[in-house]
Amino acid sequence: MKVKVNEQHNFEVEIAEKALKVNGLELQMDARDLSPTQKHVIYQNKSYNIELVERNEEGKAVVIKVNGTLYQVGIEDQYDELLKKLGMDSSSANKVLEIKAPMPGLVLNVIVEEGQEVNKGDSLLVLEAMKMENIIKSPTGGIVKKILIRKGDKVEKNEILLQFA
Q: Within the chain, which residues score under 70 in pLDDT?
């Protein structure tokens, strides 16, 4: 399986019954379970306390704490590789291509520009509906391909407001 740490370090990991191989090299270590979420490991005469902080089954990602330092760890197995080759991976399945108005209203402000890269949760625009200001946030990361509305436009429910590349 492939393991990515902090979105920058990639490792090829094999787990056998009593052995752990990283990038083809078998690691010699002593590991003891302290609890269901904590381990104590001795590796190359150094002691490591490892704690599982957060687990995301869907995204196959975990956050672990090693001697007080947090690490984001992503895991990809052979099935993920196969789905990716077939174009059926979860990242493409969850890709949102357009933002529609959740209700009729008046566009008070467009925060983004065409060609701008946005992350999940970034504010895209402000829509006034029933005398309330609603900030429309991005449900996904991506690049704004086309903005179909302007400040002052009246929009109907389900009208396409912007599109992602």
A: 57-59, 87-95
Q: Are residue 79 and residue 7 in the same domain, yes or no?
A: yes
CB 146 within 8 A of CB 91: no
> Which of 92, 115, 133 represents a domain boundary (last residue)?
92
Q: Are residues 87 and 107 in the same domain?
A: no
Q: What integer pLDDT is reported at residue 35 of this predicted model? A: 94
Judge if pTM exceeds 0.85.
no
- Phi, psi torsion values for 60, nearest 5 degrees: 50, 55
Phi/psi of residue 78, nearest 5 degrees: -65, -30
Last-in-domain residue among 92, 114, 131: 92
